[in-house]
Structures are given as C-alpha cells and as structure tokens.
Amino acid sequence: MARVVVDVMLKPEILDPQGQAVQRALPRLGFQGISDVRQGKRFELEVDGPVDDAALARIHEMAETFLANTVIEDFVVKVEDSTVGAQK
Amino acid sequence: MARVVVDVMLKPEILDPQGQAVQRALPRLGFQGISDVRQGKRFELEVDGPVDDAALARIHEMAETFLANTVIEDFVVKVEDSTVGAQK
Questions:
Q1: Which residue, of A40, B21, B56, B80, is most buried by count of CB atoms within 10 Å of its CB?
Q2: B37 and chain A: CB distance < 8 Å anywhere?
Q3: What is the SS3 assignment for A70?
C-alpha cells in the first residue's frame, strides 16, 4: 500500500481571497515578512497495490476530472514514500 | 524570495468526512483501488529574505498558532525550491 498525494492549488492568475485573508492577518498577529499566501487543498490517497505508471495515469485522470477544477486550479500528483508515516 | 509550504492534515484519529465522501464517490465514478482518502489544506507562503533557521522557527510558530488547529490537526513545514515554479 502506497500513499499518493494530489495537491490542488488555484492557478496563479486566479484571485485567492482565502490566502489573502491569511496574508493580511499575519502582521496583525505579529508575523512579518510573508509577502503572499495561497491556500489550496491536499488529498492523501491510499492506493491498493503497486503505484506503477498505469496507476499513476489513473490517479492523474481522477485528479483532472474530479479532484481539481482545471478551469481555475492546477494540480500536482506525487508519490510519497509509504514508510514516511510520522507527521509534524 | 523563497516559498515555504505548510501542509495541514487532520490527525489520523480524527474522522475526516470530506475525505470519506471523496473516497466513497470514486468507485461510482469508475476509479477503483483507492482504499482511503484524507483531505487537508496546503498553504504556500512567499517569504521575504532568506529562509534560515530563524525564519523557519517563526513559520513553525505561525503554523502552530494560526494555520493549524493542533488539537485536531498535524502540520508539516517544508521549504520548496523557489526555482520550481511550474506546476501541473
């Protein structure tokens, strides 16, 4: 079993009010030096069986048709080492 | 200017209805072989100046106090190569 990550972000030319809200809040909260924030989505998929080219092609198609709205969003598919389970 | 990414995911023991909805929809849409989906948030921060240990410590604190709810969420701070701009 392997983990595949799909990161979905708004395209650079699309306004991101969520990210802007975060960016404008940071100085008020005492954090300087962040000039831009973009907020997107991260999907972690647990894949049964091997993550070969066919599986990746299927996941790419899934991301394109279902996880991302490709009119306004870009996505990246990444295979994550399944042994790296510890987060934080 | 460098890009720092903060990934925020629900802790493994916290129920993720969003991810479950995605996971249950996939077979209906013709995608088999995905046993679990977790959905989280991805923040891309553009940092002014160098991303040294002090800046990373500040971003870590920011993520802990503001971007993530550490009662129910884990987060990971990653420095992304600023030359890798092309997505998709």
A1: A40
A2: yes
A3: coil
Question: Is B55 an 8 Å CB contact of chain A?
Answer: yes
Cβ–Cβ contacts within 10 Å for residue B16, how many? Answer: 19
pLDDT tens, position by position, A49-72: 889 999 999 999 999 999 999 999
Q: Which among A1, A65, A74 has the least Cβ separation from residue B87?
A: A74
Which residue, among B33, B46, B39, B37, has the nearest Cα to B8 in the 3D structure? Answer: B39
Structural domains in chain B, CATH included, are 2-80 (3.30.1280.10)
The helix or strand, by DSSP H or E, that contains position A9, with its residue range, turns out to be strand A2-10
Q: Are strands A34-47 and B2-10 parallel, antiparallel or unpaired?
A: unpaired
Give me the residues paired with residue B39 across strands: A43
Render pLDDT for B7-61 as a digit per residue (tens, 0 to 9): 999 999 999 999 999 999 999 988 999 999 999 999 999 999 889 999 999 999 9
Place of tokens 């890798």: B84
Q: Do A46 and B25 touch (CB under 8 A)?
A: no
Q: What six digits make up the tokens of A62?
A: 């899934």
Could you tell me which chain B residue has the CA closest to the CA of A12?
A: B87
Dihedral sign computed on CA atoms, order A15, A22, A78, A66: negative
A47 Cβ under 8 Å from any chain B Cβ: yes
